[in-house]
Design brief:
heterodimer, A: mainly alpha, 78% helix, B: mainly beta, five-stranded antiparallel beta sheet, four-stranded antiparallel beta sheet, 5 helices, globular
Amino acid sequence: MVAIVDHARPARAIHPLHAVLLAASLPLFLGGLLCDIAYSRSFEIQWSNFAAWLIVGGMVFAGVSLLWAFIDLFRAGRRRGRGLAYFVLLFITVALGLVNAFVHARDAWGVMPEGLILSAAVAVTALLATWFGFSSFRMGLRMGDTR
Amino acid sequence: MTRSSLLAAAGIVALLTACDDGTPSPPVYGANPPLPEQQQGLLPSMKIAKPANWGDRKPTVPEGFTVTAIATDLGIPRQTLVLPNGDILVAEGRGGSAPPLRPKDLIAGIIKAKGTTSVPSGNRITLLRDADGDGNYEERTVFADQLNAPYGLAFANGQIYVANQDALVRFPYRDGQTRAEGPPEKVTDLPAYINHHWTKSLAASPDGRFLYVGIGSNSNITERGMPAEADRAMVWEIDARTGAHRPYATGLRNPTALAIQPGTGTLWAVVNERDELGPNLVPDYLTSVREGGFYGWPYSYWGQNVDPRAQPQKPELVAAAIKPDYALGSHVAALGVAFSSPVMGERFADGVFVGEHGSWNRSVPSGYKVIFVPFRDGAPAGDPVEVVTGFMGEDGNTYGRPVGVTVDPKGALIVADDLSNTVWRVAVTDRSPSAEGPADLGSATTDGNGSSN
């Protein structure tokens, strides 16, 4: 009876602040992608400016989340399967995001098409990283494993 | 960097080092410069001047010339003008108020500011006088102040014309005056919205009827949007009497200095071309300015070489784009031009002097000197000759950055240096006999007035 309750309960929820940071990067990267699409269709430069700032904003949140995830890897102990997947996905997001930020530092249409492709890739990896991030702490770990 | 290599690159450090652009070739000169492939790295190559004090050093000048600092501690000297009585006017200031639009603008602004002077903008015109003619300018007065980043200077119709960053103004002038009698009268407003390239260069037609003002673009390559480029990247012809203007030539990205060719009366310009296409693109140039001509910016450069960063493209304008006359080398940042005369000695009798402020967008710096482009039959002919060098030392320090150059009919080249806030006078000491006749000197005086910029 007791064992069943223990097993069904979340072992260790994602820290609320970590959750906020991780969740915040997704809409920013998604906004960057939408702005890039708008620029590529309209040649209206302001969309490209918005994209550049949104990507930097996404990078700030994703970067701090990545650091947090890195520390959590060690705290997770032996059973870090999904935690590692989360970390790797977030690392790819941040690496591509950094390249994307540099591409968005180019002038005018020099951003295209690389910027649009990278923004799409970053939005997808950020979505996957967020998915894994929120699920990795809920499943597969028990309280006893981390404490 | 290609898209595939971009996406494949995983290591951040590897990416940062991969954007170094290899070994840039030295600047290439002349009418048909080689134009390599466009390169857009992940980060623009930035090599910023490391300022240092001249100390006991001086710029290097050719044999037969001496160089002296005739004014120091100025408020950012840009362009100079030699008046008929030999007095020298110096326009001092710093303009531009372009707000950072992107994260890049914030960062690049901080980096670039390291390579320029930190003194406040003078916003004035200083007059230098050498009353006894010994080459020592012992008298210094403020001719006019409370101006808005004055740059271009010209003397015509008994007036001193000053191109501020937002308006062309004039001061009535009588011989011997050391101070303007009052605030200037506005001839016309000049385009000043954003003022990314704020300098307004100036030249007067030989008869004084027209003033030509060079207006730089509001961006490197339209990254502030095309609406910001209205009335930009062009030379205006302004009626001196009414202030009415019309575009005289367009597509000139940043025409930083203008000069009238003695004899022909043709307008010439030095123009700074676009950045971030690699260390060997795009050459800055010297060109005669054709009335009604289009010179490519933003859609193309050096004739029909399309710049894909400017979208949507205008093929009909690209087809009409004029090739400039003479390439000065990429990123040299030519900011001064003056026609020479026989007073400068036989070697420099026919041609133009060009002040090169020096590069930032290149791992191996270019510019940082004053060169002479020899002319034959009224057109550039042959390789440029270095005239004033030593602004960037072998030790990696930068002591000065040349801007405006002006030929003094007494036989000297006046060079404004906006890093050390100095005006240098490069005087002929050993003139070849052929240039010494009084007739030569007389004609040079007229030329000197007409070609001031």
